[in-house]
Structure formats: C-alpha cells, structure tokens
Design brief:
This protein is of the alpha/beta class and 507 residues long. The chain is 59% helix and 6% strand. The chain contains 23 helices and 8 strands. The strands form 2 sheets. It has a 6-stranded mixed sheet with strand order 4-3-5-7-6-8. A two-stranded antiparallel ribbon has the order 1-2. It is elongated. The two termini are 48 Å apart. The model has no long low-confidence stretch (mean pLDDT 94).
Length: 507
C-alpha cells in the first residue's frame, strides 16, 4: 500500500510539471539550455556567424550573442553558453527523438526523481516521514515554480537528493551509485561541488562502519565523481579557453562578502513566507533527532547556503531556486522533528496512532498552505505569462521574411529558437552605430526589424538618442500578446510622409 502511495505522489509531481509547464523558451537561461541541446544533438558545438566577423562596429561579436550566450573566446564569430552543460546534455537525446517539444519533458522527469529521492531520504527516519516529506516537497512553491520551466534547478536538486539517498543506503554499492549520481550533479551545476565533498567526508567518517570500510567507501565515491569534474573542465576549456573559466565571468564580480548579509535576510524571509514558520523546526532537528543522519542533512543545508550567500543579490522570491537542493532536506528535517515530538508527547497513550494522526494533520495543513502560497505567487499562471515568447517567435516565423534580421534584446533567444531568424542584440550595439548597423545588414541582403517587449522601449529610446530611429515614433507593424511590438525601420519615413500604417494585433 505504501509503495502505491509513493508512486502516486511521484506521478503527481510529474503530472504537475507536464500540466502547468510553460513549454516556452523564454529568457536567457532557458534559451541557453535549449540552444546548447540543439548544438549537442547536432555535434557542432560552436558555429561561427559570418556577420559577427564582418561587422565594422566596436565589439561586434557581442551584438550577435543572444541571451544566455557570450562571444566565443576560442572560435572567432561563434557563441558559447553562459550556463553549465548538464541540462543541455540531458535534453539532447529528447530533442533528437521527439523534436523541440521533447526538451520540455526533461525537467518534469527530474521533478519526479526529486520527489522520489526525498521520500527515500525521509524514510531513513521512518516510512511516514518519507511519505510526508515527499508530499511537502511536491507542494513547495520553489519546486513548483521551477518544475514547470526548462531550467537546471530542479534537475540539479534531484541529482543531489539522489546522491544523498544512495550515500545513506546500507547497500554495498551505495557509495559507487552516490558518486556516479554526484558526478552527473556536478555536470549539471558545478558550483555545488562542495556538496560532493560533504558527502565524501560523511562516507569517510560514517560512525557505524569500520575504518577500512569507511576509507573504501570514500575512495569509491571520490573516484566515481571524477568523470563529472573532468567533463566540466574539458567543456569549459573547449568553450572558454580554460578549465577554470565559465560563461558567468570573473568570480570577484559574482561573489563578495558584502552579499552575505542581504542574501541571508532575503533567503530567510522568502523561506519563512513561502514554506511557513514551521520550517524553523529544522534548526533544532540535530538536537531532537540525535544521530549522524540529521547532522548530515543539516550540514548539506548549510553548505548549500554557503555556496549562495556570497553570490549576486537578487530581489525576486523565486531566486529561492538556488536553494532547491536544500529545501527538500529542510522539509525532511522539519517533518522528522514533528514526528519525533509527536511520539514523545503521546508516549503514554496509544503512541503510534496518535503520532501518525498528528503528522498526517500537520502535513495536510502544510501542503494546503504551500499550494495556496504558490497560487498567490502566480506559479500556475506562469505558462500564460511566458507564452508571449513562443507567440512572438512564431509570429516572426510566419509573417517576417526569411531574410529578416531581428534587432531585439530580451527576446533574442526565443526569436532565434522559434523562427530561425538571425538576431542583433541592441544593448550589445555601440549607441552611435544603430543606423550604420542597419545599413550594414541591408548591404548583405537582410531586412532589419525591431522587436521589443513594452518595458524595453524606454530603454532603447534613451540608448539611441543620436538616431532618429531611436525615438520609435511611428506605428509598429504588429503587437503580439499585448506586450511585444515589432517595428519596420523603413516605415518611419513613409509614416512622416503621411502614409497610413496599420498595426496587426495578434492576441
């Protein structure tokens, strides 16, 4: 019966990702993963763009690098991703077999894996703790927000949770399995390699094992982690010219001690607001739950926090996604603490039944609270909000000519993904070169168009004050999803000569 319940919870997590999935390649992160999946599937990792080599303006390759990418330091005219390779590698076979829609299956499948792994880890404290933890992990607003998007947060968290589940197993091959899974997790999110070090130290000092068994387990785990580390190093060397360099730039620009306090305040506030104050019970878990397991999970939570507290400060609650490897562990510790306290409180009066009902009621209450919080934060509206990327890109594919060069920024990735048209990123273009850049495109047989989200237009006007086109003072040819406008630069002169220029509205 318990196995059937677990299967239903796991299927529920998968169904949630599929039902409310955005199915959209939108911002820089999602395009970074989707485009690199295309490159891995094709076997051509860096493809030079001739225009980037020929353009005469300063830092020209930067203007031809769409969202989520930078100019390649190793292949002139090509672009390379800023994101780690793991999710793209996982997406590539789905893309090859099922086409572009196939990539959207990957994250929900990892979501199901995360919930299953949470159950296994929670079950180390008892089966009912595992069940309750799996339910709450499925309802977590941070999990729900990310399981419906093609991004690496849920896959990375799922792999680390599975590594913990394998490492805490009593099976002989647990360390090997944990190391192989951690290897994949490192490929997915390399900056979380300290979690692997923590698991390795746990295996080296696991109390109930002999020293010989501990040493062997730690060695096997460490050796199994090596392939992921080597793969990351080789890929970064290929893309960025050094195994220690990534697309995110210099470490001193991303990490700073000054970030720790504001990030600590934000993460604490967001966790409190989205997961209820009961999550504070995880803090006392190592006291209420004596033993190595609670200490291991608490340490992994602290290590995850340590990886991100010095990182760049963000103001949106959904940057809790960085802490997704820790959130299921916090939920496990919280549930296990509640269960332990309930057993102590009911020790003299039918303890098992009372403790079970106490945990069931608290879990149901928390699950409803978490889902209501997710709904209030528009998690289930994300597909509608993100649909503009696909709709705008598909409009470009249908209505703009094959030789269109789309000058855009925020939608530079989605336009390329959905339409196959070339893009020029205007905020990577020297402010004095707008008119000459468009002339350059026309000389090479391309017809330029300008595409903006509504919030970008004021920024564009301020940037290109030296160009008449920078004013955007003529009607767009189209408005898509009430948020995206497309302008034909050649229409400005016609408009000021008195010609009527209708706008097509695509809702």
């Amino acid at each position: 019966m318990r196995s059937l319940v677990v299967v239903c919870i796991v299927i529920g997590a998968l169904a949630t990702g599929l039902r409310w999935g955005t199915y959209a390649v939108g911002g820089s992160d999602s395009y970074c993963y989707a485009h690199q999946a295309e490159r891995w599937a094709s076997g051509r990792l860096q493809v030079p763009e001739p225009l980037a080599l020929e353009a005469p303006w300063p830092d020209a390759p930067l203007a031809f690098a769409p969202g989520g990418h930078i100019p390649s330091p190793t292949v002139p005219g090509a672009i390379v991703p800023i994101c780690p390779p793991g999710l793209s590698v996982a997406m590539a076979p789905f893309l090859a077999v099922a086409g572009a829609r196939g990539i959207f299956l990957v994250v929900p499948l990892f979501g199901a894996l995360l919930v299953a792994a949470t159950y296994v880890v929670g079950s180390r404290f008892g089966p009912r703790v595992g069940l309750a933890s799996a339910v709450l992990a499925t309802c977590s607003p941070a999990f729900l927000f990310q399981v419906i998007q093609p991004m690496s947060d849920v896959p990375a968290a799922a792999l680390w949770l599975l590594a913990v589940a394998c490492a805490t197993s009593t099976k002989r091959r647990g360390p090997l399995a944990a190391g192989l899974v951690a290897s994949a997790a490192i490929l997915m999110r390399p900056n979380l390699v300290p979690l692997g070090l923590t698991i390795g130290l746990f295996l080296a000092f696991r109390p109930e094992r002999t020293w010989r068994a501990r040493g062997a387990a730690a060695a096997i785990f460490g050796a199994a982690c090596v392939p992921g580390c080597l793969a990351v190093a080789m890929i970064q060397w290929t893309f960025h010219g050094s195994p220690l360099r990534s697309g995110y730039g210099a470490l001193d620009g991303l990490f700073a001690f000054a970030h720790v306090a504001p990030n600590a305040q934000r993460y604490a506030s967001w966790l409190w607001q989205t997961h209820s104050p009961l999550l504070l019970l995880a803090v006392v878990a190592p006291i209420v739950l004596p033993g190595w397991l609670s200490r291991l999970l608490a340490t992994l939570v602290l290590v995850t926090l340590a990886c991100y507290l010095p990182y760049t400060v963000f103001d949106d609650w959904w940057y809790l996604r960085f802490l997704l490897p820790a959130i299921p562990l916090l939920l496990v510790l919280t549930v296990a603490t509640i269960d332990a306290l309930a057993q102590r409180a009911t020790r003299h009066s039918a303890p098992r039944r009372a403790a079970v009902w106490t945990l069931a009621v608290v879990t149901a209450f928390l699950a409803v609270t978490l889902i209501r919080e997710a709904r209030a934060r528009q998690v289930f509206d994300l597909a509608r909000l993100e649909s503009r990327f696909a709709r705008a890109g598909e409009f470009v594919a249908r209505r703009l000519p094959d030789n269109a060069l789309v000058v855009t920024s925020w939608e530079s990735g989605s336009v390329r993904f959905y339409s196959g048209r070339r893009t020029l990123v205007w905020d990577g273009l020297d402010p004095a070169w707008l008119d000459r850049a468009l002339d350059f495109a026309r000389e090479r047989g391309l017809e330029p168009y300008l595409l903006f989200e509504s919030w970008e237009e004021p920024i564009f006007r301020r940037r290109f004050t030296s160009s008449a086109l920078g004013a955007l003072d003529w009607p767009p040819i189209a408005e898509v999803a009430s948020q995206v406008r497309i302008y034909r630069p050649g229409d400005r002169e016609r408009y000021f000569k008195g010609e009527a220029l209708p706008t097509e509205y695509s809702r």
